[in-house]
Design a protein that fits this description.
- The protein is mainly α.
- It is built from two helices and no strands.
- The chain has a domain of 59 residues.
- 93% of the residues lie in helices and 0% in strands.
- α1 runs antiparallel to α2.
- The termini are close together.
Length: 111
Amino acid sequence: MIKNLDDMQKLGKDNMDASMKSFGAVSKSFQAIAVEAADYAKKAFEEGTAATEKLAAAKSLDKVMEVQADYLKTAYEGFVARSAKASQLYANLAQELYKPFESQWTKATAK
């Protein structure tokens, strides 16, 4: 597989380059995930605060039940949507993490 010192040095350099590209992709992906999580937390807090204000202003039990049902529906739908987006971000992270090493694996298995 490795014929001489030059091949070994090239392999080491290629592996280091792939590792650095992978670390860069991980950094960008984690930043995107953190931004998404912060946005979701902010939106959830704002929606919870608005629902609490509506509950405090409610004059009847029917209105309280209506506000609570609307809030729960909105919160659930938001959670499902954000979960799907987070899943996609993690899938993208895995793909970006593997991409720099893909050519290395191809070279290693071809020989």
